[in-house]
Amino acid sequence: MKFVDEYRSEADVRKVADSIRALVTRPWTLMEICGGQTHTLIKYGLDRMLPDLVTLVHGPGCPVCVTPLELIDRAVAIARRPEVTFASFGDMLRVPGSELDLLSVKARGGDVRMLYSPLDAVRLAQKLPERQVVFFAVGFETTAPAIAGALLEAERLDLPNFSVLVSHVLVPPAMEALLSSPACLVKGFLAAGHVCTVMGTHEYDPIAERYRIPIVVTGFEPLDLMVGIRMTLAALEEGRHGVEIQYSRCVTPGGNLPAQKLLSEVFETCDRPWRGIGVIPKSGYALTPRFLRFDAAKRFDVETVTAEEPAVCIAGSILQGLAKPRDCAAFGRECRPEKPLGAPMVSSEGACAAYYSYGRE
Amino acid sequence: MSDDLGEKLLALSCPVPVSDTPNILLGHGGGGRLSQMLVEKMFAASFDNAALSEMHDGAVLPVPAGRLAFSTDSFVVRPYFFPGGDIGSLAVHGTVNDLAMCGARPLALSSALILEEGLPMEDLWRITRSMAEAAKAAGVSIVTGDTKVVDRGKGDGIFVNVSGVGLVPDGIEISPRRARPGDVILVSGAIAQHGIAIMALREGLEFGTTVETDSAPLHGMVASLLDALGGDVHVLRDPTRGGVASVLNEIAKAAGTGVSITETAFPIAEEVRGACEILGLDPLYVANEGKLLAFVARDRADQALALLRAHRYGAEAAIVGEVTDEHPGRVVLKSRVGGRRVVDLLTGDQLPRIC
Lengths: 361, 355
Known about the structure:
The complex is a heterodimer of chains A (361) and B (355).
Chain A: H1 10-23, E1 28-34, H2 35-43, E2 54-61, H3 63-66, H4 69-79, E3 84-88, H5 102-107, E4 111-114, H6 118-127, E5 132-139, H7 144-157, E6 162-168, H8 171-179, E7 188-192, H9 193-199, H10 204-211, E8 214-218, H11 222-237, E9 242-245, H12 257-266, E10 267-274, E11 278-287, H13 296-299, H14 315-319, H15 343-346, H16 351-358
Parallel strand pairs in A: 1-2, 1-7, 3-4, 3-5, 5-6, 7-8, 8-9
Antiparallel strand pairs in A: 10-11
Chain B: H1 4-11, H2 33-47, H3 50-53, E1 67-75, E2 81-82, E3 85-86, H4 87-101, E4 105-116, H5 121-138, E5 141-150, E6 158-168, E7 184-187, H6 193-203, H7 219-229, E8 233-237, H8 243-255, E9 258-262, H9 270-279, E10 293-296, H10 301-310, E11 318-324, E12 331-334, E13 340-343
Parallel strand pairs in B: 4-5, 9-12
Antiparallel strand pairs in B: 1-6, 2-3, 4-6, 7-10, 7-11, 8-10, 9-11, 12-13
């Protein structure tokens, strides 16, 4: 495939793996932030190509995983209403709430639909004027501009039957929350390339400075990840810190300015709970007053719905890099992809699900 | 239906007076005049054969001594017309292939239709002709059938069930349990075509070029393999729902052996690979309707590959892996970049990811 195959060359990946082996003199723990990166690492078996001195822990960067239980319960409550057509990205549909997931709501007669773009939900609202169309706005800074675009379009069309249930989360505050914990083991970060494509890298400079840690903005192909890992390790071995960009074919320090403008028009930052971790200050997006009329949580009065996560699950430790999936007593036993107890087993890109699906031989 | 005969048959207009009844009515399943008209003018005329023309409750077939294979498959695909095929030909191919994967030569098929009130008569006519043509091309007759009509809103236009019987030649023993360490695994062509064709149509996705279903009858290709290799063919499977990954897992578990495959060995069309990439789907789990996996004795692998490639439906056949005594019950993949990982069963359907 044009522009992709060159990042999946076995010879090149092996060469980088060899150079990593030659470079490392001490044990280091690195964290990849993004679930997409975790997925690539395990799917291509890259984790098994690294020297034993390098430990990769898997960060909280899976939007499906970290969407709080109470948000799923709110989504379920809205989707069950007879007048509602509830639309979502595919991988949110199977995430369990306290009692139900969205696919089960569909099976019980709810009008739940899988869409590929928030704009499709706006079109659906135009097509179904007698129904209330609600889109589940989930994701990091990557998906937020598309939601913002959809809301601007809904505003332009003055659609009375379109709304969004917002659960957007932001990466830098989560990194800060991890690093400020005294138990933090992470010595270097692979930052999520697509998030930085939108936001640039400026937000990462103060974090790298304050915690004296190397942060390498990395892509998602196998060679991207291996080169990103090598860059992070080289900085650690040489005692350097700061932000470097491996994914320079897409990321500039300033990011995508039109997308950022869209975001600032539609969203403002707010405190947001993360499934498995808890509330992280200023780590989420909420609608600005101008767009509050499109807030599904208010329209359907579900803001008071709350939920408690299962106590046995160590998801919080896994998402913070303090434990690996196999450290959990429930892993692969009470907790499996078909019956997940916690966030990282929920989506196929969660660390526990990736280990469960790809890791057992 | 691509050949001339098929087009000519399709071009014939519907024999049911469409001006009077342009849509299926509940009465078409009621057993009275309307039912009779449908059966006689549409189905019996299209599927025309001696057993069917008896108009009996079932078909009475002469069967030579030997072993009978029996299979059934229901089709609920939406939409029922799609690039490269439709629900009718798909149903015939599906059952013919299920019989072929047992090592059987198809003998006769049944056709059971569940029609939704309001289904356009012209659509039913197209599907009927397509079934007739697919059966004719496969050299097998549709000898019995059934039609029911359900209330509007209680069906998805049309559901098709096709059952079939076939004869298994002496000396042929095809079963998932017969996979043994050392067997070589072949695939008959590019994977993931059907699933992507349907998904692209259903979701209105465009990939620059139209992806067509690979739906095809595979019994001819199977017959040539069995004629030459006989008992050295151990397992045959068509990787339909759940794709190659699910079938290989089932076989590994049934045989209690390990299966090792190489990611880069699987043929896959560029546009299908691109579509999977965009949607975050693994082509190993995407459905096929005209491909088979064959497990054959190692010393016959090259011959099997040549036989598959000589057939019109096997031109892109490839050797993709082997059976091993390591990691019993598990499928392990050598990734594109040289790493290893387990290929497990999915929990449910694959769902496109957020980002």
